[in-house]
Amino acid sequence: MGSYERGTRAISVARAIEIANLFAIPLSELIEDPRTNNRGNDDLIIFDLRKLRATESAAIAPEISKLRVFVSAICARRRDWNGEVLTIRSSDLDTLTLVLEMDISEVRDLFRRSQLLLHPLGY
What we know:
Number of domains: 2
Number of strands: 2
Strand content: 5-15%
CATH architecture of the largest domain: Orthogonal Bundle
Mean pLDDT: 78
CATH class of the largest domain: Mainly Alpha
Helix content: 40-55%
């Protein structure tokens, strides 16, 4: 694996697909040059799952209830059971706008108001 990462050995398409499937990630995540990735840490949306679970059901907005279901589904799909935090991807954010029936600015505002993110949004 290290020789693939260092670029000292070429990887076949079949092996790349096998590795992507093993880690349940898109193949593009393996072949994208990290130096061309312009996303900074400010673009990361990291949910504090402990805080989300601690939010009382009776006191939450319907959007937060939908957010709980959405985040749980992502954790299950990724088999990510650490239970502490969850970083969502840009494609997850696109899907979340559809689930919540909000545009992106409304979703960002919901994130700010809910205070369920690990760090404030940089956008």
